[in-house]
Write a structure and sequence with these properties.
This protein is α/β, with parallel strands linked by helices. The protein has 18 helices and 12 strands. Strands 9-6-3-2-1-12-11-10 form an 8-stranded parallel sheet. Strands 5-4-7-8 form a 4-stranded antiparallel sheet, with no helix packed on it. It is globular, with a radius of gyration of 23 Å.
């Protein structure tokens, strides 16, 4: 679907300068939305919001439906009586990079204490809203909280390493576990309730400021996830419940052995026979919780790289046909439209472009990729008609970092020739070009607005550790920057448009 011309900022909530050592849905999030509104931004793009799995990556989640508890604001819980304000002293007020081990050790116990207090003492409207949430979301919630509790009980071991009767979901074993863990399951349900009530309240505030939220859906899910454990018949698993084949991409210029991502692949034949029900549920849920959706690795819907699970690299994989138009026809029928755009980066075949164009789903242009001499000029602003343009993404270096260290000399020369001189820095030259382009949406990582270097990069895909940690400091996104962005938005005809308020109400204790 075409999108109204707009501009926005890419910032994951973990990067907000909140209390507790990690960004959350508290006061700092609302202050950020105020800054977006002052800057006349019509979009806030986030990364996936699910519970973290391996590597603390938002793209490596234990559920396609649940929310990440560490994004819950303790301050907002305290305001509603879930936890005593005095307990907040244990939550760090420092605004440096996220230290995940410290966050898990300090914030998670406070969240569970708050959930326990709510479950034991909530009454009135709060209790009623909680019970309604549990009833309406039982289709994913019941399995997730059981999976989450069993995973904790088994010291975070993957579900295939649990006792066999639980790994194979034998009914008697599941029923026994539900009874034994009943109190714990209630608390975990309460935390999911708190997550979605806080997120919906924040989305409502965005809507009131004419700001749409852009979400992100990864094509594949983790093997160690509720989704695979619960719906084993939808995935390519063998009789031992291990993957037969896994996901990745073939060898290319960037990697001689390719990339072996390791996610289990889908049984698309089974999904088709079931009317793509799981995908409809997944994308319906995504569109209920965000306004627009970025579809990660769109190519995989046309063809995906199938790697034998026993191989340690991606070299011996093969291309296999994906669901193509059939899936999206079912999605459009069920959702009433396709408010998606495609991550179609890397080597993309004409067939993938044709699929995207048939579906009227815009692709992406990333300016940093456009200055090489290998035919990548499709990423330059003047070629961005019908696309979503970025200066860089969460996987790129910051623009200043790219220009100073990551870019080759010829790329810097090409950028200078294309953009001309910019007295206020190369990052502002990129931002001006992106906003001036014919692209439907122009999205800028906050690091580029702030003019930050490589040390503030969000993710380096080839690096196993140290990613997803960056946070900005209070006052960095100030009124002067907001005013500068606002003037650019006005002159490039990207002013926000009013949107209906349809996000949920905040919850009461």
């Amino acid at each position: 679907m075409p999108f109204p011309r707009a501009a926005g900022i890419l910032l994951h909530p973990t990067s907000l300068p909140s209390r507790g050592g990690i960004g959350d849905f508290g006061a700092a999030a609302y202050e950020f939305v105020d800054s977006l509104a002052a800057a006349r931004q019509g979009l806030w793009q986030v990364l996936p919001l699910g519970p973290l799995g391996a590597g603390n990556s938002p793209y490596s989640s234990t559920s396609a439906f649940a929310g990440n508890p560490v994004l819950i604001s303790l301050e907002r819980l305290a305001q509603r009586g879930w936890i005593h304000s005095a307990k907040m002293a244990a939550a760090s007020s420092e605004c440096g990079a996220v230290e995940y081990d410290r966050v898990f050790a300090t914030k998670i116990p406070l969240l569970f204490e708050a959930g326990r207090r709510f479950v034991s003492s909530a009454s009135g409207a709060g209790r009623q809203r909680f019970e309604q949430f549990c009833a309406e979301n039982a289709w994913w919630l019941d399995d997730f909280v059981l999976f989450d509790a069993l995973r904790a009980q088994n010291k975070l071991a993957s579900w295939n390493q649990w006792p066999a009767e639980l790994a194979r979901r034998e009914p008697a074993a599941l029923e026994r576990a539900r009874k034994e863990l009943a109190a714990d399951l209630k608390i975990r349900s309460a935390l999911q309730f708190a997550f979605y009530e806080q997120w919906n309240a924040l989305r409502r505030y965005c809507s009131e400021q004419a700001i749409r939220v852009v979400g992100d859906v990864a094509i594949f899910v983790n093997y160690d996830s509720t989704d695979v454990w619960t719906h084993r018949e939808l995935f390519r698993l063998n009789e031992n419940l291990d993957p037969d084949v896994v996901s990745g991409v073939p060898p290319d210029f960037f990697s001689k052995t390719g990339q072996r991502w390791g996610n289990p692949l889908y049984r698309w034949d089974v999904m088709k026979a079931r009317g793509y029900e799981w995908w409809i549920q997944r994308l319906r849920w995504a569109t209920q919780n965000c306004d627009y959706i970025r579809l990660d690795h769109f190519r995989g819907f046309d063809q995906f790289w199938e790697i034998p699970a026993h191989d340690s690299t991606a070299m011996n994989g093969r291309w296999v046909d994906g669901p193509r138009d059939q899936l999206f026809e079912k999605l459009a029928e069920a959702l009433g439209g396709l408010p998606f755009f495609a991550e179609d980066l890397g080597y993309i075949t004409p067939a993938v472009h044709a699929l995207r164009e048939r579906l009227r789903i815009p692709g992406m242009a990333v300016m940093q990729f456009g200055f090489s001499d290998d035919g990548a000029h499709a990423h330059l602003p003047h070629r961005a008609t019908g696309k979503i343009i970025y200066t860089g993404t969460h996987d790129n270096d910051t623009t200043i970092g790219w220009y100073k260290s990551s870019a080759a000399e010829h790329e810097r020369r090409n950028a200078e020739a294309y953009l001309g001189r910019s007295e206020d820095g190369i990052h502002w030259a990129f931002i001006r070009a992106a906003l001036s382009s014919p692209a439907e949406l122009a999205l800028i990582p906050l690091q580029d607005v702030l003019g930050l270097g490589s040390d503030c990069r969000m993710n380096t895909p080839s690096r196993d550790r140290g990613n997803w940690r960056w946070r900005f400091s209070p006052g960095q996104f100030n009124g002067e920057l907001a005013a500068k962005l606002a003037r650019l938005v006005e002159v490039t005809d990207r002013m926000p448009r009013g949107i209906p308020v349809r996000a949920g109400e905040d919850f009461a204790a």
